[in-house]
Amino acid sequence: MNNDNAMLRRERSLLVLLGLICLGLVAGALYMQYGLHEDPCPLCIIQRYFFLLIAIFAFLGARFNSWRGVRLLEVLAALSALGGIVTAARHVYVQANPGFSCGFDALQPVVDSLPPAHWLPGVFKVAGLCETAYPPILGLSLPTWSLLAFGVAFVPLVRSLARNRRRFA
């Protein structure tokens, strides 16, 4: 039983770390937006939402003292990471195969109509186009880095869920 408690504490600590990393990634996106003047597109904003969802679920999961609560929130975090993978992969595809956008992205009205875009427009309001390719970082585009980050969040969450599936007490 003592080993089980130690494993639960470790799992909760890892969730806190995951949440902090996701918040750091959003902070980095805000630095790129305001410090480097790289305007976020609709897919960038959706990826911010997914990073924040992962962080929220990770922090909430770290608050539970039972495996059942931790597992539930890890499932939600993993689903958010999966949504981020799909969004980032779409963004990579759009930048690899640009089409004619005539200065308008069809996702912009949808993303801008979400409540957080009204509450914090500086964070969640669309200002750019998905086809705009900013300078790569270490040879990779921003959407590719985002895709990698979502994968780095998703794989350990799924491995943890598989490894600890018997601990639902």
Question: What oligomeric state best describes the polypeptide chains here?
Answer: single chain
Largest sheet: none
What is the mean predicted local confidence, pLDDT?
87
**Tally of individual domains:** 1
Instruction: Give the name of the CATH architecture.
Output: Up-down Bundle
CATH superfamily: DsbB-like
Strand content: under 5%
Number of helices: 7
User: What is the class in the CATH system?
Assistant: Mainly Alpha
Helix and strand pattern: HHHHHHH
* Helical content (DSSP H or I, runs of 4+): over 70%
CATH fold naming = Bromodomain-like
CA-based gyration radius: 18 Å
Protein name: Disulfide bond formation protein B
GO biological process, one term: protein folding
Organism: Paraburkholderia domus
Family: Belongs to the DsbB family.
In summary, what is this structure?
It is built from seven helices and no strands. It is an all-alpha fold and 169 residues long.
Strand and helix layout:
Blueprint: H1 2-34, H2 42-62, H3 67-96, H4 108-112, H5 115-119, H6 121-124, H7 142-163
